[in-house]
Design a protein that fits this description.
The chain has 65 residues and is an all-alpha fold. Helices cover 71% and strands 0% of the residues. It has 2 helices and no strands. 2% of the residues are buried.
Length: 65
């Protein structure tokens, strides 16, 4: 399934939730969709838990002008 089709289905689901359930249902569907997206990326192997908890490098910044 193409990403355009996935986006269309997600948009339709959010639209139905907003129309029939109100703004609270819209937010719930959007949050659960985002969580499902992240879990799916973990399942595909595209993300690792360390990607969210990496410590930033505190070294000198390279400032080029």
């Amino acid at each position: 399934m193409s990403m355009a089709m996935v986006g269309m289905v997600a948009g339709m689901a959010l639209g139905f939730a907003g129309y029939f359930g109100g703004f609270g249902a819209f937010l719930l569907v959007a949050a659960l969709g985002a969580i499902g997206f992240v879990v799916g990326r973990f399942a595909d192997g595209d993300l690792e838990p360390g990607d969210f908890f990496r410590v930033r490098d505190r070294g000198e910044r390279d400032r080029r002008r």
